[in-house]
């Protein structure tokens, strides 16, 4: 037998042994018992050492793991909001609530970031309601124009209330957005979107007047030529 033949036999034997080992491992891991198939190589990860939410717990008098919050307490940073989703409560919120960031330009970048996350898809870059959902025709009802005179003349507290509890077909965002973040969104709408909309309206009006004057001048020239 040549050296080449010996090496080939050796490699063939190694291959057979490897396949056999893999087969044994596969077969042995297929059935621990019929109610719990397979073997776990990391039981501390598969089987929680902590008490599961709805399991019994001997450490508490009532024997439950899942306990109610202490009476009279609220989650951190989740301040209770007493204004309901009604026109009366919206007006009341406008009278009672004050924007802690009113006139503070330092919060506008964060306000824009939050607006892009929670508001942009419906209200659009300019706040005119022509966001992605409407432009893609996935949502056929035009969302509210945040630059309308109605919203521009309302106090910040009313916008905050609408974001919190919703308005019309708009859902409530109080559970997703912290109060401080809602105020930053309000500040962005007030200090960025509204001035941009007013500037755009002023420019459009000036262009229309200029076009009108230019048109009249051309008509006068035409009359003179005739």
Structure, briefly:
The chain is mainly alpha-helical and about 230 residues long. It is built from nine helices and no strands.
Topology:
Elements: H1 3-28, H2 43-46, H3 87-96, H4 108-118, H5 120-123, H6 132-135, H7 149-152, H8 156-165, H9 179-225
Structure description:
The radius of gyration is 34 Å and the shape is flat. The protein has about 230 residues and is mostly helical. Among the domains are: about 1-30; about 85-200, Cytochrome Bc1 Complex, Chain D, domain 2 (Orthogonal Bundle), CATH 1.10.760.10. It is built from 9 helices and no strands. The mean pLDDT is about 85. The chain has helices at about 5-30, 45, 85-95, 110-120, 120-125, 130-135, 150, 155-165, 180-225. Helix 3 (about 85-95) packs across helix 8, helix 4 (about 110-120) packs across helix 9 and helix 8 (about 155-165) crosses helix 9. Helices cover about 55% and strands about 0% of the residues. Pfam families: Cytochrome_CBB3. This is C-type cytochrome. InterPro entries: Cyt_c-like_dom, Cyt_c-like_dom_sf. Keywords: Heme, Iron, Metal-binding. It comes from Carboxylicivirga marina.
């Amino acid at each position: 037998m040549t050296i080449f033949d010996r090496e080939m036999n050796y490699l063939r034997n190694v291959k057979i042994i490897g396949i056999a080992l893999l087969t044994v491992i596969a077969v042995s891991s297929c059935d621990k018992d019929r109610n719990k198939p397979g073997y776990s190589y990391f039981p501390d990860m598969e089987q929680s050492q902590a008490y599961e939410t709805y399991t019994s717990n001997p450490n508490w008098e009532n024997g439950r793991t899942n306990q109610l919050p202490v009476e009279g307490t609220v989650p951190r940073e989740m301040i209770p909001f007493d204004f309901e989703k009604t026109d009366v409560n919206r007006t009341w919120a406008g009278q009672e609530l004050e924007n802690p960031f009113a006139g503070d330009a330092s919060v506008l970048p964060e306000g824009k970031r939050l607006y892009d996350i929670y508001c942009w898809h419906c209200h659009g870059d300019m706040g005119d309601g022509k966001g992605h959902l409407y432009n893609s025709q996935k949502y056929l009802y035009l969302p509210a124009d945040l630059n309308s005179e109605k919203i521009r003349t309302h106090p910040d507290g009313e916008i905050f209330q609408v974001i919190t509890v919703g308005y019309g077909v708009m859902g409530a965002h109080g559970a997703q957005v912290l109060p401080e973040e809602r105020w930053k969104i309000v500040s962005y709408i007030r200090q960025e979107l509204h001035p941009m909309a007013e500037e755009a309206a002023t420019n459009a009006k000036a262009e229309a007047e200029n076009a009108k004057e230019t048109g009249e001048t051309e008509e006068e020239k035409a009359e003179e030529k005739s």
